[in-house]
Amino acid sequence: MTFFEQELRKLFGKGTGLSDVRIVGKACYGRLSEDICVKIHFTDSFVSDNYDALKVVLINRHEGEIDSMMLHFSDLWGSRKVNNPCFRDGICPHIWKDGRNVEWYIYKPNADDYGQLSRAVSDYLDVFREPVPQMGQKMC
């Protein structure tokens, strides 16, 4: 299992609200509904091989891409303090690839960070989920 697959399992391995979840390489695939599929993958937005965001893409099986969004780790987590004299002001979390070595650069996210990122993706996906009727509420 690759580093990216391990990280995606931490984020989307269970309890995501997606069905038929598959993790391959740098991407997680799943179903939001019968016709809407989701692709979530690590992306480098500024520097090659410095993965600083997740891109979430919603795809209608019959019509193609519906919408997409980039969740930058810096927007979600901000700058993080680390015990490294080279980064006294903190560092914006990202994954870096150096040859064959892939890992979080300096700052390693904790369980709360993973939870926050997973919830942000879920909040975005909620916009596209079918509404669930509340008890006593009529659906149009």
- Main beta sheet: 5 strands, antiparallel
Beta-strand percentage range: 25-35%
Number of helices: 3
Report how far the terminal alpha carbons are from each other: 46 Å
Spatial strand arrangement across the major sheet: 1-2-3-5-6
Q: What would you call the structural class? A: alpha+beta
Shape: globular
Rg, alpha carbons: 17 Å
Indicate the mean pLDDT.
Answer: 92
Question: How many E strands?
Answer: 8
What are the secondary-structure elements, in order, as H or E?
Answer: HEEEEEEHEEH
Question: Which residues sit in consecutive blocks of at least 5 with pLDDT less than 50?
Answer: none
Tell me roughly what share of residues is in helical segments.
10-25%
Question: Would you kindly provide a written description of the structure presented here, covering whatever features stand out?
Answer:
The chain is α+β, with helices and mostly antiparallel strands. Helix content is 22%, strand content 33%. The chain has helices at 3-12, 73-77, 111-126; strands at 19-24, 27-31, 36-43, 50-51, 53-60, 64-72, 95-98, 101-104. A five-stranded antiparallel β-sheet has the order 1-2-3-5-6. Strands 4-7-8 form a three-stranded antiparallel β-sheet, with no helix packed on it. A hairpin with a 4-residue loop joins strand 2 (27-31) and strand 3. It starts with a helix and ends in a 14-residue tail after the last helix. The relative contact order is 0.16. The model has no long low-confidence stretch (mean pLDDT 92).
